[in-house]
Amino acid sequence: MLSKSEVKYIQSLSQKKFRGEENLYIIEGPKIIDEALTVVPQHLKTIYALPEWVETNKNKVSDIEVKEITEGDLERISLLKTPNKALALMEIPWSEGFLLKKNNLALVLDGIQDPGNVGTIIRIADWFGVAQIICSADCADVYNNKVVQATMGSIFRVEVFYTNLPEWLPAQNDVPVIGAMLDGMPLNFFGKVKNGLLVIGNESKGIRQEVLPFVNQKVTIEKTGNAESLNAAVATGIILSYLK
Amino acid sequence: MLSKSEVKYIQSLSQKKFRGEENLYIIEGPKIIDEALTVVPQHLKTIYALPEWVETNKNKVSDIEVKEITEGDLERISLLKTPNKALALMEIPWSEGFLLKKNNLALVLDGIQDPGNVGTIIRIADWFGVAQIICSADCADVYNNKVVQATMGSIFRVEVFYTNLPEWLPAQNDVPVIGAMLDGMPLNFFGKVKNGLLVIGNESKGIRQEVLPFVNQKVTIEKTGNAESLNAAVATGIILSYLK
């Protein structure tokens, strides 16, 4: 059985402050843990798992600390409504200063606060081979449990960087900045974009005023019906399907 | 102040069984209520609202029963984490038997159980002018509060019909059935589709075995990265952006 202090420690990682201090975040469920074991085993610190999970996975986890726990323990440390066999603590990868890759299309998220949307966008980026996402500081934290789970493991393959966009954007010389907006060119006027930044704004507020001056092309998803707007993740998926 | 029995009655509408018996569902928040007042005022039965909402909207609601309530009342009847000024009971429109419109692209949802996804798909359909959605019986109920709120009002403009797909599909003579699948033709091989059914399957299981025989064209969103799958709503948005 887990000690009270260990339970409390794990629970504290649901808060951004403690994640930052401990440099750890939580992943849950066999599927995403399996993905972590494949893609970034070096970041796995501790796995807390039910006996059945430990039995099935014992050959995969030789170098990693695994603690066998009871269902009661798992319920106490899980952030999910329905705990799912195993939970792991992951190290937040240490980034040595972010550098935008050359000849690449990267995503810029401006004020995307919904954790599910940020997670889904990371998964979409991974589907289309977008390797880097630059977020405004007020986007949902990528290591928030809801974001992590919504990425379905894509978090291990996509680099996410938080910054002040109005300061960071002008420092990216000559990289075309495409803004998703309501008054832009229709998607099918664009060809594939090999080099550039695609800016996705907040669903209700759009791209913020301070960021707009850096947008030098506007793209629009043409509307043939009546809905007022599209979900930010859906819009990102549609635009990337044309540009990538 | 609302009576206990009135509170209990409204709360009961969070359950599908009682929605069916009473033929009512709940919408919440000024934005979607405003949309209802514009699009389907005849379906609005009762509005429960804080004094500030009543004051602002008194000119719009002359024919509708409005009950002024306290914040405490609203908290007791609201299904939202953060109640938002007003809640309304809506009549479920009585459908006289569903007929597929001719020369139209309609959506078919097969086993989409997540309410947020079903709601987002209804909103996407509305954006692209898709007027009808046919759902398998195990899709999330369109009048579930989470679905309703995720539609952002598009629920008032899109017709949704639940049926047994393996029985219903073969009765639709000569309508092309396009399935979203992993082994289909890339999207850009398709032109605009004026007449047909687009089938979206469950995110992890795909289109079910019993439905597959009725699919006569397959479409695929090409993957250039590594994610295993796309969210069902995102996939729907991407495909409709090419087909509509």
Please give a handful of descriptors for the protein shown.
homodimer; 244 residues; alpha/beta; 60s Ribosomal Protein L30, Chain: A; Alpha/beta knot; 2 domains; six-stranded parallel sheet; four-stranded mixed sheet; 9 helices; 31% helix
Please describe what this structure looks like.
The structure is a homodimer of 244-residue chains. With 244 residues, chain A is α/β, with parallel strands linked by helices. Chain A has two domains: 88 residues, 2-Layer Sandwich (60s Ribosomal Protein L30, Chain: A); 139 residues, Alpha/beta knot (3-Layer(aba) Sandwich). Helix content of chain A is 31%, strand content 23%. Chain A has nine helices and ten strands. In chain A, the strands form two sheets. Chain A has a six-stranded parallel sheet with strand order 7-6-5-9-8-10. Chain A has a four-stranded mixed sheet with strand order 1-4-2-3. In chain A, helix 6 runs parallel beside helix 7 and helix 6 runs parallel beside helix 9. The longest helix of chain A has 13 residues. The first copy, chain A, is elongated and about 60 Å long. At the A-B interface, helix 6 and helix 9 of A face helix 6 and helix 9 of B.
